[in-house]
């Protein structure tokens, strides 16, 4: 009954959560969903690595394109938000981010952070407690853009952007709008669970929108020691521009690279 409905070309239109995956996290309005494959349905344990193909690729496409999908929870799901019986449609969620990591049983899994779309009712808890009080994953603040990227504008991000006068640390471009220069503060290690990156200067880069997306979606990595950038469209040997006074936390670059292996 579990499933991801969709294709790598069009994205995923729906998923069913029915409790087959030991690495899933469900906090109602935020879900960390495990991709498909390599799972023993009897023990629920991972017994092999997962690939970014089929349904897993469809979810990645949904994230890249900002496409919402329908979430249904089944009664076998090990979660306070599972229905008592049967299956319940729980509304539209957005795939905010995807990455790979080694799961509980030691195999590579693909994971997806899903957030309930604004305006959708929160799913009811089995114990009847208020759903709003339960979540600790916390929804990310959203800004409407053409690709629905999540843009966080913290004081720390502003500080880093000012430091570089809005010049991208990867390509050097500086976008000028009628309102001044525009750049984006990009967290190397993502904020919020399960990554728990810090909103500190050492974890933030000043990037143009293209390179922000490429970094967030795993299209480029930055070598923690040499700072050489590897990714589509990046000239060979290009290193990250780092100004004196901007001490980048190299461990966070290693963490980021580990998310997309
Ligand atoms: Zn750039």
Can you tell me the overall shape? globular
Q: Beta-sheet strand percentage?
A: 25-35%
Mean pLDDT: 88
Hetero groups in this structure are: zinc ion
Which segments are poorly predicted (pLDDT under 50) over 5 or more consecutive residues?
Answer: 142-149
Strand sequence of the main sheet, in spatial order?
A: 1-2-5-6-7-4-3
Q: Alpha-carbon distance between the termini?
A: 29 Å
> What can be said about the biggest beta sheet?
7 strands, mixed
Count, helices:
5
- Estimate the helix proportion, in percent: 10-25%
- List SSEs in N-to-C order: EEEEHEEEHHEEEEHEEH
Structural class comes to alpha+beta
Count of strand segments:
13
Please compute the radius of gyration using only Cα atoms.
19 Å
Describe the protein in words.
There is one protein chain. The protein contains five helices and 13 strands. It has 261 residues and is of the alpha+beta class. The chain has helices at residues 54-65, 131-134, 155-163, 209-216, 250-258, and strands spanning 3-7, 11-17, 25-26, 30-34, 68-74, 87-102, 108-116, 175-177, 180-182, 184-187, 204-207, 220-222, 229-231. Strands 1-2-5-6-7-4-3 form a seven-stranded mixed sheet. The model is unreliable at 142-149 (pLDDT under 50). Helices cover 16% and strands 27% of the residues. The site of zinc ion has 8 residues, from helix 4.
């Amino acid at each position: 009954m579990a499933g991801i409905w969709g294709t790598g070309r069009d994205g995923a239109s729906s998923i069913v959560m029915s409790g087959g995956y030991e690495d899933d996290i469900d906090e109602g309005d935020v879900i960390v969903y495990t991709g498909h494959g390599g799972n023993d349905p009897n023990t629920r344990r991972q017994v092999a690595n997962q690939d970014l193909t089929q349904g897993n690729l469809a979810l990645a496409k949904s994230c890249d394109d900002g496409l919402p999908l329908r979430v249904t929870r089944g009664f076998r799901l090990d979660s306070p938000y599972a229905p008592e019986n049967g299956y319940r449609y729980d509304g539209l969620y957005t795939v905010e981010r995807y990455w790979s990591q080694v799961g509980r049983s030691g195999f590579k899994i693909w994971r997806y952070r899903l957030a309930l779309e604004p305006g959708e009712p929160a799913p009811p808890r089995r114990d009847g407690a208020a759903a709003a009080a339960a979540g600790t994953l916390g929804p990310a603040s959203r800004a409407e853009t053409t690709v629905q990227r999540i843009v966080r504008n913290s004081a720390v991000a502003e500080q880093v952007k000012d430091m570089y006068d809005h010049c991208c640390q990867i390509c050097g471009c500086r976008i000028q709008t009628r309102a001044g220069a525009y750049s984006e503060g990009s967290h190397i290690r993502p904020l919020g669970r399960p990554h728990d990156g810090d909103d500190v200067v050492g974890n933030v880069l000043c990037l143009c929108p293209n390179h922000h997306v490429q970094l967030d979606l795993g299209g480029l990595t930055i070598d923690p020691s040499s700072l050489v950038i590897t990714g589509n469209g990046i000239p060979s040997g290009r290193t990250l521009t780092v100004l004196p006074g901007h001490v980048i936390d190299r461990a966070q670059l290693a963490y980021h690279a580990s998310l997309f292996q």
